[in-house]
Specification:
This protein is of the alpha/beta class. The protein contains five helices and six strands. The protein has a single domain, classed as 3-Layer(aba) Sandwich (Rossmann fold), CATH 3.40.50. α1 crosses α5. The longest helix is centred in the C-terminal third of the chain and has 22 residues. The protein is globular.
């Protein structure tokens, strides 16, 4: 699940779909969250963070990436999903920023911030590749450790 319809989300959705991930994109802007911009998405949800989260059914194998690039939206999203049983939550921005999103709380183990592998990525495509590489790594490490991938 990708929250935010930013240019890096467009690339991430495309690459993720091509590598076998089921892709849901959620954003409050219908002009950015549509099939023309996200042709490979399995599902598109237009609405506020609270509306989008209420329309989703989360399961323990889900990967969530927050890419809204807006502090208040990220804060609302993170507070809505942090208690859910998820495989992975990736948040754009530094650990300090993410800690502020949680009102300076301790970051749960499933939160990865800054999202993506540290490869010096620049531009939407490289950022998407760094994020997808991390998602694939987490998925493969769980399979290797024989943790059930529901």
């Amino acid at each position: 699940m990708i929250f935010g319809a930013s240019p890096d989300a467009v690339s991430l959705a495309s690459f993720a779909a091509k590598t076998g991930f089921s892709v849901t994109v959620c954003d409050w802007r219908e002009a950015l969250c549509n099939k023309k911009i996200f042709p490979n998405a399995d599902q598109l949800i237009v609405g506020s963070p609270q509306e989008a989260v209420s329309k989703l059914q989360f399961i323990p194998r889900d990967f969530v990436v927050i890419l809204t690039h807006q502090f208040q939206r990220d804060k609302e999203l993170l507070q809505l999903i942090v208690e859910k049983d998820l495989r992975y939550i990736g948040v754009m921005g530094s650990k300090q920023r993410t800690s502020r999103l949680l009102n300076f709380g301790e970051l749960p183990f499933q939160i990865s911030t800054p999202v993506g592998l540290t490869i010096g990525a620049e531009g939407p495509e490289e950022i998407a590749i760094s994020i997808l590489a991390e998602l694939i790594h987490v998925k493969k490490m769980l399979l290797k450790s024989k943790v059930p991938f529901l």
